[in-house]
C-alpha cells in the first residue's frame, strides 16, 4: 500500500466510524429510516454534482449509467435504509461491529467474481481473526432477543450490499472521476428514495441534534466519504479497502460509550483487539511507509556503526 493509500485508509476508518452515532441520534428522534436516508443522499448528491459540474467531469459518465445505477442500488439505496432500520433495534456500537463482516463477504464473492481479490495466506488469516473479533463482540447478547435479531439481520443484509458494490466500482467505474461517479450514484438513490421518503415525512419538527446529525451524515459521511472511498478502492483494491470495516467499530464503540452511554464489556475489548490484529494482517501485515522507515532506521544506524 502506498502512503496515499494509507492516508485514505486512515481517513475512511474515522469517517465511517462516525455515522452510526448520528444515525442512532436521528432514528431515536423518531425520523424514519427512509426519510433519513433520502435527506442524507440528497445532500451528498447536491454537493458532489455541483463539484463535478464545476470541474467539467460529468461527461465521463457517458455510457456508464447502468453501472452507476447498479452501484447506487447495492451501495446506497438498499444499505442506507437497512442500517437506519436496524439501529431502531440495536445499538450504534453493535451496528458497526456487524458491518465488520463485509471483508469476509468480499472474500466469498471474490471466489466467483474477482480472482485478484481472493484472500490467501496472511490476508485470509487476518480476515478470519477479524471475523472472530466480530463474533466475540456480538457474543450471546443478541441470542434470544427477537428485536435485536431483526436488527442484526437488517445490518447483515446491508453488509452484503457493501461487499458487492466495490467490485462493481473497481471493474466498471474506476476511471470515472469520483465526484461524477458518486454524485450520479447519490442522485439515482435520491430519486428511488424520494417517494417513500415523502410518505414518511416527520409529523413534528426534528430536534436541533437530529438536524445537525443529518447535515453531518450528508456532507461528511456521504459526500466526502464516497469520494475518498473510491480513491481508496482504486489505490489499494476492494479487499484491502474494506478492511476499514474492521477499524470503524473501534471508533463507533468509543463514541457509543462516551456519548450514548452504550456498555462496553470485557468481551467487547477482547473483540476490538482481535479486529485490530485482523485488520493489520489483512493489509499483509505491513506498516505505513513513514512508520516503516522510522522503525527500521535504528537498525540501519546500528548496522552502519558496526
From TrEMBL:
Bilayer topology term: Multi-pass membrane protein
One Pfam match: EamA
Biased composition (Polar residues): 296-306
TM helices/strands, residue ranges: 7-27, 33-53, 65-83, 89-110, 122-143, 149-169, 181-199, 211-234, 241-260, 266-283
Domain of life: Bacteria
Signal peptide per UniProt: none
Keywords: Membrane, Transmembrane, Transmembrane helix
Subcellular location: Membrane
EamA domain ranges (all copies): 7-138, 150-281
Ranges for region Disordered: 287-306
GO cellular component terms, A-Z: membrane
Family classification: Belongs to the EamA transporter family.
Protein name in the entry: DMT family transporter
Amino acid at each position: 500500500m502506498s502512503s496515499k493509500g494509507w492516508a485514505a485508509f486512515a481517513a475512511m476508518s474515522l469517517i465511517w466510524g462516525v455515522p452510526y452515532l448520528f444515525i442512532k441520534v436521528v432514528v431515536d428522534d423518531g425520523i424514519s429510516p427512509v426519510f433519513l436516508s433520502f435527506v442524507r443522499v440528497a445532500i451528498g448528491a447536491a454537493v458532489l454534482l455541483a463539484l463535478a459540474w464545476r470541474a467539467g467531469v460529468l461527461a465521463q459518465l457517458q455510457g456508464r449509467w447502468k453501472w452507476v445505477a447498479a452501484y447506487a442500488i447495492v451501495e446506497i439505496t438498499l444499505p442506507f435504509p437497512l442500517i437506519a432500520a436496524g439501529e431502531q433495534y440495536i445499538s450504534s456500537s453493535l451496528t458497526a461491529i456487524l458491518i465488520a463482516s463485509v471483508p469476509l463477504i468480499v472474500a466469498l464473492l471474490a471466489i466467483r467474481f474477482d480472482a485478484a481479490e481472493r484472500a490467501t495466506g496472511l490476508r485470509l488469516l487476518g480476515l478470519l481473526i477479524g471475523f472472530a473479533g466480530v463474533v466475540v463482540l456480538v457474543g450471546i447478547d443478541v441470542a434470544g432477543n427477537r428485536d435485536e435479531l431483526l436488527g442484526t439481520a437488517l445490518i447483515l443484509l446491508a453488509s452484503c450490499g457493501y461487499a458487492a458494490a466495490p467490485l462493481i466500482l473497481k471493474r466498471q467505474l474506476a476511471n470515472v472521476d469520483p465526484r461524477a461517479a458518486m454524485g450520479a450514484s447519490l442522485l439515482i438513490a435520491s430519486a428511488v428514495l424520494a417517494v417513500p421518503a415523502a410518505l414518511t415525512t416527520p409529523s413534528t419538527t426534528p430536534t436541533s441534534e437530529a438536524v445537525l446529525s443529518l447535515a453531518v451524515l450528508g456532507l461528511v459521511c456521504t459526500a466526502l466519504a464516497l469520494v475518498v472511498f473510491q480513491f481508496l478502492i482504486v489505490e489499494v483494491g476492494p479487499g484491502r479497502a474494506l478492511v476499514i470495516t474492521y477499524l470503524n467499530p473501534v471508533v463507533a464503540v468509543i463514541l457509543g460509550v462516551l456519548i450514548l452511554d452504550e456498555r462496553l464489556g470485557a468481551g467487547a475489548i477482547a473483540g476490538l483487539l482481535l479486529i485490530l490484529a485482523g485488520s493489520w494482517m489483512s493489509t499483509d501485515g505491513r506498516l505505513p511507509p513513514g512508520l516503516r522507515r522510522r522503525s527500521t532506521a535504528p537498525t540501519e544506524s546500528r548496522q552502519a556503526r558496526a
